[in-house]
Amino acid sequence: MSYPHLLAPITIGNLELRNRVVMGSMHTGLEDSRRDLAALAAYFAERARGGVGLIVTGGYAPNKRGWLKPFASELTTRLQSMRHREITGAVHDEGGAIALQVLHAGRYGYHPLSVSASNKKSPITPFRPRALSTNGVDQTATDFAETVALAVKAGYDAVEIMGSEGYLINQFLAARTNDRNDAWGGTAERRMRFPLEVVRRSRDLVGADFPIVYRISLLDLVEGGQTWDEVVTLAHQLEEAGVTVLNTGIGWHEARVPTIITQVPRGAWRSATARLKAEVSIPVCASNRINTPELAEEILAAGEADLVSMARPLLADAFFVEKAATSRADEINTCIACNQACLDHVFKNRKASCLVNPRACRETTLVLGPTKRAATVAVVGAGPAGLATAVSAAERGFAVTLFEKSEALGGQFRLAMAVPGKEEFAETLRYFTRRLEVLGVEVRLRTEATAGDLASYDEVVVATGVVGRVPDLDGIDHPSVVSYADVLTGVVVPGKRVAVVGAGGIGVDVSHFLTHDPADDLDDWMAHWGVGDPGVHPGGLTERKPRTPIREVTLLQRKTTPIGVDLGKTSGWAHRAVLKQSGVVQVNGVTYDRVDDEGLHYSVDGTPHVLAVDHVVLCAGQESVRDLYDELGGGAHLIGGADVAAELDAKRAIEQGTRLVAAL
Ligand code: NAP
Ligand code: SF4
Q: What is residue 130's three-state secondary structure?
């Protein structure tokens, strides 16, 4: 497939973009320290080399009160702007264009200096902001404009003013956070004054043609959010004030509706963008849960937007655009919207990377250069660890053979993609499968490698993975007891009443799988999360429609901690919410007694209970499979779940394999 709309150039202000792909802003943690400037420049340069039309940096604050956290990124001095030339120069050398995002965190600032339109505390930060004085608001608008002017001096080709996601500008716009009674609040018109002043003052400093992108919040998804009329009025006025492009944002960070994680259907928010586009004459950029060139092309071809912003997909594959443009879209390493190595890292104060591409943000330190050794490499096991190793080794020029005892590639990943909302995992398998083909890796499926088979290889990597743990429990052989693997592969279709033993990531996923109604579509998804027409419901938020779980599920664990507390920082809350919405009964602090014809017998605090269920699904963690490694007697590399089964995840497996290959 070719992508005529996606790959068509577009002119915004005085800037010609080579295509319609915008790498959306994402904070990586490399922005916050001067020491990381070279790494940040290399990260952007690789994306520019990969052909992206416009890169947008992570957010830079216009003053200290706008920091995301103490000493976070800001652009406030001439000296800083000169340093940024390392970034802009690196991108320009690769033929790319780059915009600086100006972001004032407002009450989302994780520090005691934070300010906002009012002193209302956000539910996601411990710090209560100070309400800006009337003069303080005026000065902040000027600070924004001065940062925009410094961006021009730094060599940026454009700026993006962050007006969505619940940051300061959004806090001024919404009645829920702006109850001021001065010139910057009160009526809807006065709430809009702050962003308009930011844009007008910026425009005054940078001249008529310099591209100013404004990220507008289409759906706040919080109570007391903006009405659709307010959004449209703001868009018109921004256009008049001199905005060149409207990028779009969905949901405040504190919203309790997921907007970008895997369980959000692809393209879920495109209709909101189309609705805005119909109202304005400047270009509009679609964003959120768009991760393939096919979907991006479809949105542009339908006239729903003029540009498409993809942040995480460009983290996952720097060469997304080049591959799309050279008929190699099937080689794109697709972002699976897991957040595990990008946003989860950033929200835990770690530098971002990517689960499917551990080189992201480590371009200068995790290098897979061509090898000078004419060595052969055998990889045993084709789960995420083995696949990443085989592909990386072949990319370096090793002659690679991949052994897999089952009839398909993927290992535990194949199971994950059966979980509702985790269908994206299939893309990673498609990517690895195609790369193995293109790189000429010899793949031997249905082959259980023996020590003898491996004797002739220079390097042997054992990635034989894990097996589900079978707890030591009376009645474990009862016919009602089944493994999560059998359930997720469809070998067993459980009855109406099910007990799930073990409430780690897989127990939670299996509970979702068992209760989910496969007939649910995008409209149902919106209804379950209470997303309504913003023309009727301010912020786009309405009553949630209850789910109709197709089974009665009880999820159990021995620990007394709440179920699901160890799930991903930015996605765990949504998984926990789905369990609740699906009526999954959660029981912790249990002791398992036995399984028999009556069901699962367990006790809590010494009180016996019996769950009359049709099936008991074991999700009790995993154990490493190491027989081959032990037989090889230490002459091999051991990675992935075969190395450490506890808390195995694909992020660790893929990174471990990639790092091993870099060191070969
Ligand atoms: P896990 O997270 O280690 O959870 C295993 C569960 O089994 C625990 O709840 C544990 O809790 C229970 N358990 C352990 N030994 C048991 C025994 N002998 N008898 C009964 N119960 C026992 O493993 P997992 O759920 O299989 O997940 C594996 C990894 O995949 C996770 O660590 C995670 O990184 C990844 N994953 C992540 C997600 C996600 O949403 N991010 C989803 C799926 C998988 P008690 O000991 O308290 O009973
Ligand atoms: Fe996408 Fe996951 Fe990579 Fe983040 S870590 S960019 S969500 S694949």
A: strand
Q: What is the dihedral of CA 204, 32, 58, 70, to 10 degrees?
A: -80
Give the pair of three-digit tokens for residue 332.
């794109």
Residues in Cβ contact with 658 at an 8 Å cutoff, skipping those fewer than 6 apart: 358, 359, 366, 368, 388, 389, 392
Query: Where are the alpha helices (H) located in 490-620, listed in sequence order?
Result: 505-515, 522-529, 572-581
The tally of CA atoms less than 13 A away on the side-chain side of residue 121 is 9
Single out the residue of 153, 25, 16, 176 nearest to residue 82, CA to CA.
Answer: 153
Digit-coded pLDDT (tens) for 22-42: 999 999 999 988 999 999 999
* pLDDT tens digits along 329-367: 999 999 999 999 999 999 888 999 999 999 999 999 999
Edge-first strand listing for the sheet containing 585-587:
481-483, 615-618, 497-501, 552-556, 585-587
| 265 dihedral zone (left: phi>0; alpha: psi -120 to 50; beta) | beta
**Cα dihedral: 345, 351, 354, 358 (round 10):** -130
- Residue 648's pLDDT is 67
Judge residue 166's burial from the number of C-beta atoms within 10 Å of its C-beta, 0-12 exposed, 13-18 middle, 19 or more buried: buried
Nearest alpha carbon to residue 89 among 167, 140, 179, 157: 157
Phi and psi at residue 641, to the nearest 5°:
-65, -25
Asked whether 336 lines ligand 2 (CB < 6 A), one says yes
Nearest to 646, CA basis, from 628, 624, 627: 624
Cβ pair 61, 72 in contact under 8 A: yes
pLDDT tens-digit series, residues 180-228: 999 999 999 999 999 999 999 999 999 999 999 999 999 999 999 999 9
User: Rounded CA gap, 242 and 227, in Å?
Assistant: 23
CB 604 within 8 A of CB 621: no
Distance 74 CA to ligand 2 centre (A): 25
Q: For position 568, what pLDDT does the model report?
A: 86
Which ligand 1 atom sits nearest the alpha carbon of residue 468? Answer: 26
Residue with CA at minimum distance from ligand 1 atom 44: 505
Is-contact 63 132, C-beta < 8 A?
no
Nearest one of 89, 91, 129 to 108, comparing CA atoms: 129
Q: How far is Cα 360 from Cα 355, in angstroms, rounded to an integer?
A: 9
- Identify the CA nearest to 248 among candidates 175, 314, 316, 307: 307
Q: Is 167 a catalytic residue?
A: yes
Q: How many CA atoms lie within 13 A of 406 on its CB side?
A: 11
Ligand located closest to 261 CA: 2
Encoded amino acid at 18, one letter: R
- This model's pTM is above 0.85: yes
| Any atom of ligand 2 within 6 Å of the Cβ of 355 | yes
Q: Kindly report the number of other CB atoms within 10 A of residue 239's CB atom.
A: 17
Pocket test for ligand 2, best of 315, 347, 651, 658 (most atoms within 8 A of CB): 315
